[in-house]
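Regression report. Comparing outputs from two consecutive submissions.

Submission 1:
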Amino acid sequence: MRRNVLFVLAVFVILALNILVFTQNNQKNQSAFNAALAANSLEDIQKQLNRTADYTVMLKWISAIGALRDQAKQCVTTSEGHLKIINDLLKTSGGDESQLQRADLQYLKEKQHFYTEQLSNCQLFIYRAYDVLSQYQNVIQVVSAYEILKRETPLWRVFHEDWHTFFSSVQFKKVLADGGIFSLSIAEGVSGVVLLLVAILTAVYVRYFLQHVIGVLRENYLVWVDFFTVLSAFVVPCTVLAFLSVYLNIIAEVPSSSLVLISHALLITALAVMLTKYLFYPNPDSKSLLGLSPEVGRLFYHRFSYLVGALFLGYAATTWFRGQLVPDGAMDLTRTIYVTVTAWVTASIFLLLRRLPVEDPTRRNTITSISSAMIAVLIALVFSEWFGYHSLAIFAVKGLCFSIAATVIMVALWRLVDRLYQWMENNTYLSSKKVHQWLGVKPTKHMPEFILLRTVAYFSVGCFYLIALVRSWSTSSALSEALMGYLWEGFKLAGLTIVPSRLAFAVILFSAIFMLGRILAASIARRQNTGHDEDTQIALATITIYISFAIAFLFAMLVTGINFTGLAIIAGALSVGVGLGLQNIVNNFFSGLILLIEKPIKPGDRIVVGDTEGFVRKIRIRSTQIATLLKEDVIIPNADLISQKVVNHMFRDRTYRIVCSVSVAYGTDVQLIKKLLLEVAAQHDEVVHNTIDAPIVLFRGFGDNALLFELWCVLYDVNKKLIVCSDLYFSIDEIFRANNITIPFPQRDIHIKHDAASTLA
């Protein structure tokens, strides 16, 4: 089993290295950013934008400005990194030329000046690029709206065009040359085939391993069975396509050749189909992640697969025949057929919404209305395409397709987050019990860290869904970039800069560090070979949780970007507050630490504080929880346990001495009483009978109506003192009755005086 795991890890490492090579191959031709040349290019682009009103040309120049702006951002990042290194080197020298030679200092200062100037130039170019983009944003919106609503050749005029000459005018040699097939040598082809066979064999072995994993997990981990089932079904084709994509990208002289681009698109298509199967129809015997039955899920899976395949065919045809002078009639006819087929497949998906298992009549009517409305919109778009509004139809169909995909992915991610949360929090799952055991938390208790992580996941899914919808229906990328800017760079609210991405990452970091602290604390509490007793381990575990919480909170504050100079002022104000109003809280906090370290009381001890007697359940940061004998939970501040008198019955051991008081009538044989009482004590199993703590009988004196005796006994367990006392009293009463020993009760004599005169009267 271990060899199989190592083999799979090796396969994934190889794929990761291939992806790394793929990334480096794409970036190796990038040159350093030149701010002066970029500024000249920006001026030329701005002149071109002023001269043209063509939407396609404007988009081309706007994209060029965006590319230059991204290079400038990379320049800023690089310059800041170099300046940080140089400043650190200059600080280490401390102005002493004996540590660094004078030439080295001069070199560092020259580099510092160079990168400072480069940083300012790159930042200035970024501001200029943003200014140009914002200047032409409204123009692009107006022109794009006009292009979308512009009417072109209707369907009945397409057949009058000379579109049938397309096949005779296509330069197939140029198509093959642009595709990159002729650029492959025989040696590269042979090596590719050999490596492809190795990839296929590896994928087959991985599939066999996944099927073995499915057989192991099927009984206990049903949540992961569907995922591994789909992965085993697609691992071979996806591995082959991934190998082809990476291999062709590495050996291709032109990375943007048609063959390379189509290989990338084919891999993405296969991954999309695999994702669709996992979401809708992972297993014929179980419901899907979206909660659909196998019958309905299979229909959704097939129709979404048809839609993904149609999108791939459109992209592949466009990529293969790019650069060809296609007649307008052929282009319009092909586009009309493509839009009609895509709209028909999309309408069939909306038609399936009526078969969703919804029991609520209101929701069913709502889903039916949405389905009918979307089908009507698609029919209208098909007619608009036939009547010549090609751009409007393409824009709407593309927006609908991407909106459907974004919605499905959003719902799936939402359900996946909820399922993972249930997998870790629902104590009916074995995995949840193990997770709570690792963290040292009771299975019935909910973890606040998991709730925080689930909230962040919901927020992230919602944000990216909103951005995906905006990109699907926006005519330019300005709005989506603005939303991304608000998400990653933040926005101002009442003078306060709020960065959602930083807040989300801070919550994730806080939860991760705090959970690591919980795992460490639970490990300390469970470990038996630490050289400490159980109580010390519990105290160390509690202190570990406090420290991990403080570290997690500190790192979270650092990630959010809070200025610690301001925190110093707040800390000063808090110190005044501690001296005035928070001293009790601080006193209880440090008293809790003293209780954990000094251990005068421990969880499980039976103590008496004032009028309260009970068992210590938990020592918290501010207070201690005590469960009384009447099943009441009493919360006592930790400072009271330090400052007041506390009786701990279990500080050294669990033994306890009880006293049973007995009264007998005058005239009773006192030696017989002593003998009987010792006999009663000797018959009870919970009473200690050794020579040191053996039971004793004390004659305490002569009362008003009885002789007073006390039976002193030491018990093994203090928690049974009331039960043992009751048993002893029952036995004493029984043995006294058997020996005719009387237990007296108080008596009073009343004397009545008679007056003789009143009697005669």
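Submission 2:
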Amino acid sequence: MSSHGSPLSRGSRLGGFEIVAPLGAGGMGEVYRARDSRLGRDVAIKVLPQAMSSDPERLKRFEKEARAASALNHPNIVTIYETGSADGVPWIAMEHVEGETLRKVLVGGALPFKKLLNVATQIAEALARAHEAGIVHRDLKPENVMVTKDGLVKILDFGLAKLSGPLSGGSDKESQLPTVTGTSPGIVVGTVGYMSPEQASGEKVDFRSDQFAFGSMLYEMATGRPPFQRKTAVDTLSAILNEEPAPMASVAPRTPTPLRWIVERCLAKEPRGRFSATDDLARDLAGLRDHLSEATSSASLVATEGARRRNVPVPLAAAAALVVLSAIAGALGHRWLSSRAPSMLVPTLRRLTFQRGNVLSARYAPDGRTVVYTAAWEGKPPEVYTVRTDSPESRPVGLPMAQVCSVSSKGEIAVLLMGDHTVDGVGRLARVPIGGGTPREILDDVWGAAWAPNGEDLAVLRRGPSGERLLQYPIGTTLATGDINLGSLNGGGLLSPSGDQVAFLQGGSLTTVDRRGNRRVVSKGWPEGEAAFAWAPRGEGFVLEGTRSGAADALYAISSTGHERILVNQATGFTLHDVAADGRMLFEYTNATSGIASRAPGDKLERYYEGHDASLLYLSADGQSILFTDLTEPDQLFLRKTDGSPPVRLGRGPWLDFSPDARWVLVKGGPRELDLVPTGPGIVKKIPVENVDVGDAHILPGRSGFLLGVKSGESQDLYLLGPDGGEAAAVRVDGYSSFAAGPLISSDGSRILWETADGHVRIGSLKDGKSTLVPGPPLVIGRDFLDQWSADDRSLYVLITGQNGQPARIDLLDLATGERKAWKTLMPADPSGVIFVPSVVVSRDGQSYAYAYSRVLHSDLYEMEGVR
């Protein structure tokens, strides 16, 4: 045995384990099958190199990491049972897996996509669990992945790659072998063919280095060959640092496009270009695996056709959608989609944008070959760009913070000029030549607009003098009022091609109105703000992407008589933006996630938790605990410690408050019952309310009782309830019946603070019922939100949400003088793709905070043509 002297013989003992037979050997030592006589099970024992025992620090680190890895307890990670030392040589005993390495599985070449995604998803989920626990593998490769006969995946050697020793001797597979190891910058750790650029450079690595290695494995599983393999290790390192792998579209053209995107992102040279959380990577793969059977054959057809035409295919779900778009002709019952055209079987697809960020809106220009769009690329604020459908190069128009609404027949763009903190999506309408220039401002308080065919008149949805919504065409002539909604396209689908009808959503119905005010409901059942629609060519119906209550997002064709047909049952992730006169369509594919950032006392940097579609609720007084709900499970509450540990599911809501000591969550148990749910060990405490039906409730400081809100007509009355419940006592506070938001309770529990319907802040006493108005201008309704009293009860933290890619801001409002000062601006350190910072919670002392954000991981425009 090269590393240890003689090989261990059958019957030899290491601790409580009896050696049965050798299993394999490599640069990190020999592996034996052994029998655990105490528990009657087979184990695998790895005997580590002799060199390791001569370095006490490395041995200590190995033992620590081995314990951490064994604590992961994940079904796809091999469990470490025990560590020990024999004759000065350390060993570990681990779970014995019956199967073969992924390297052996790959001997036959590329894997079928179903098997590939099954294996890949398990690896990603295991990595996500390890990374969440702060453990980085650093030597992920096919040799360190076992696959059992029933398809179960197990990752080997967590925590060991840092400590692998240098090899002695040569090998004809040197690029498959571990290199010199260490943990300090300047020391290379890992396996040459799968290491990341930062590993190859000897730089500090983190979990994203594992993502790069995993991306290399994905590439190999899909194509049958490693992405950077060269004749020598030096050449391989050079390729990793300086070259891109051969495009998967040419090496394996039938690879589903979403999988290619995942691989490309994992193989980004810069760590920041990879996934910000491995859990997001695992979710993307799981979603692709779960939907593969619905669209694999369609995606393959599209990919093959796309490769011949030198066009980039759309994502998997969109590819399946576009293959069946040939059926829209029957759904609409008109000539604009010809069933006789051979190209209808496989539409031609082009990717139009290639940068990292978020597309906000996109429209065809009159020539039909220019697309004008707004996007926030590479963490920058939104800007207007143009791109030709026959060229991949986008050009800025020179309009920052402007959202495209419509392009006129005369080559002018109607845009909404958006402020840093736009309220409710409203902007200032302006017109500007498509080539750029100074915008000519037209109208304030506009949600969306569309040009008439004459290139002069505009249809707009604007805010009236009393806050009402006015649909006007032309400007000044009101055709409809009320809860009017333009869907998600800022007016892109407003006007019919002939200009004689306006379309909009109202009360969940797709509705049209002509210039005489005659209204007609075309289709019902669309939730407000969740549909994107465009007129079909010549005004012969609509194409609509949206969701009905309880159903998945889908693409629909709706005729002018209201007949509708589902074109794609699973359309999650892509959005319709425009339909050209010849039937070509603009689609956006989006992959988004949400997350929470927090900073606790003593933290120098913010911590980020992506992967949960988080709705932030409460922060404990010490800044150590966060309560949030996941929008995919809106009735479930999660508790997350700000030390980076995994979230804990607490149960179902509705949730009302969080005790300052983070020990209890207040829940509405029924109309006349409150429940105190423990966040740790303990039982639920029932708090009866004898005389009123509870609307909301707050825990009073010191758990001296509860402040209840009870609906009373259009207002809300206040009651005080003792800590053990019983009969609640009414509290009258001057002016509180006209509340708009609140109340917030002062730190001593004697006063409340709320926002009135006109935006002013009032402070009322719970003792004598008197209230005072905070001086100064009112808050901006829809933009400014009450957040928290300061610790000394002299100031108020006020939140301004971050919209359109802008950061959120917290101001401090002096309650005595009304003076307002900026306190903190909040945005993730990596702002790429962040489109919304909707909520912030601050501790009273200002020493800790947390905020939620939404990030677009991928957002790209595609054009589909070939439909006549």
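Expected: both submissions complete independently.
Actual: both completed, but the second showed a warning that disappeared on reload.
Relevant detail on submission 2: The radius of gyration is 31 Å.
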